[in-house]
Every structure is written in structure tokens, then in C-alpha cells.
UniProtKB/TrEMBL annotation:
Keyword Signal applies: yes
Source domain of life: Bacteria
Protein name: DUF4124 domain-containing protein
Keyword vocabulary terms for this entry: Coiled coil, Signal
Length: 142
């Protein structure tokens, strides 16, 4: 009975210490006349809550407020053109890689078909195999 109490006390102490270590950040916001504390920001939006460190009790904004200057139309067009050029380059690279892979596979298929044909020349049932492998060579080696 004493051993069970010791084990349960150890498990309880471990659970408490683990939960305290896991609770690093708490989000705080005003809800009417009271503060609300949670490990998830209000409505899952970082701009509605402040971040509070549980250990140090420091409170800071969850996200930095950045005042973005409006872009001019020319800047937006330039950015869109650059993005389109990057996408086109990625597509060209991908297509080139696919074509290289397909060419390699075609060479491997041709080599295998020729190997099969040369092996069929010496087989006992070559009358049945040679036409099939000749057809494979003409299919894969063009």
C-alpha cells in the first residue's frame, strides 16, 4: 500500500512539472470587464490578443504592428511580372527535368528490348519469341 502511494505521488509530481514546462505562452485579452487567458489566441487571430510569458509575466503584443505603405501601380505590376517570370522558369525547369527522365527511360527500354531480342535468338522457341521482341525493338528504339 505504501508503494502505491509513493508511485501515485511521483506520477502526480511528474504531471504537474510537465504541464508547467509546457505552458510557456498564454494569450490575454479583455472580454468585457475581465481578462481572458488562453493558450490559443482569441478567434485564432493573433492581432486580437497579447502574448504573456507565464514564467516572467511579461506581456507583449502577439504580432508586430506594421504600417505598410501602399504600393504604386507600377510596383505591383513589376512584382507580378517577376512572380510570373519565376513561375515560368520553374515550369521550364520542371518540363526539362521530365523530358530528361523520359529520354532516360526510353533508352533503358530500348536497351532491354535489344537484350531480350539477342537472348531470344538462342532460345529453343525462337520462332515464337523473335517476332515479339523484334516488335518491341521497333516500338522502343525509334
Amino acid at each position: 500500500m505504501m508503494n502505491l502511494k509513493t508511485i501515485s505521488a511521483a506520477v502526480l509530481a511528474l504531471a504537474i512539472s510537465t504541464s508547467a514546462m509546457a505552458a510557456d505562452t498564454v494569450y490575454v485579452w479583455r472580454n468585457g470587464s475581465s481578462n481572458t487567458y488562453s493558450d490559443i489566441p482569441k478567434n485564432l487571430r493573433m492581432d486580437h490578443a497579447n502574448k504573456m510569458n507565464v514564467r516572467t509575466h511579461n506581456v507583449r503584443q502577439a504580432t508586430e504592428v506594421r504600417h505598410k505603405e501602399p504600393e504604386s501601380l507600377a510596383e505591383r505590376r513589376l512584382a507580378l511580372a517577376q512572380e510570373a517570370a519565376e513561375r515560368d522558369k520553374k515550369l521550364e525547369d520542371e518540363n526539362k527535368r521530365i523530358m530528361e527522365t523520359n529520354a532516360k527511360i526510353k533508352q533503358e527500354n530500348c536497351a532491354q528490348a535489344r537484350s531480350n531480342l539477342s537472348l531470344a535468338q538462342n532460345a529453343r522457341n525462337r520462332d515464337q519469341l523473335v517476332p515479339k521482341y523484334t516488335q518491341d525493338v521497333s516500338k522502343y528504339c525509334n
